[in-house]
Amino acid sequence: MIKIFTYGTLKKGHINHELLGITPKFIGKDTIDGELYSYSEAGIPFAFEGKAKIKGEIWEIQDGNFLAISLMELNSGYHLKMVQTDDLKENVIAYFCNDERLKEHLTKIEDWG
Question: Beta strand 91-97 with 44-61: parallel, antiparallel or unpaired?
C-alpha cells in the first residue's frame, strides 16, 4: 500500500479518481508545500515545488494502481517526490510538474475543485 497526495483530477469526484482503484482508503484532507496553477482551457491543475501551500487529499492505494498513476504522471512531464503533509504529518508521494516555464501561461490558484 502506498500513500499519495491528490490535488487535481485524482481527487474524489474528478475524472481520474477511478485510477486510485476500487478500494482506495481515504486518509484525510491536508496541505503540502508547493504552488498550484490552472490551465483553464484544458481544465487541469499543475503543481510545482515551492513555498506556498497546495490543498489536497491523502489516499492509500494498492501498488498496482500507484504504478499506473505514476506512468500517467511521469509521461505527462511530472516527477514524483516523497513529502510530508502539514497537519496529519503523513509521508506521501506527490507529483510536481517539471517545466517551470509553463507558469507564464498558467493562472496561480489556491485550490482546484
Answer: unpaired
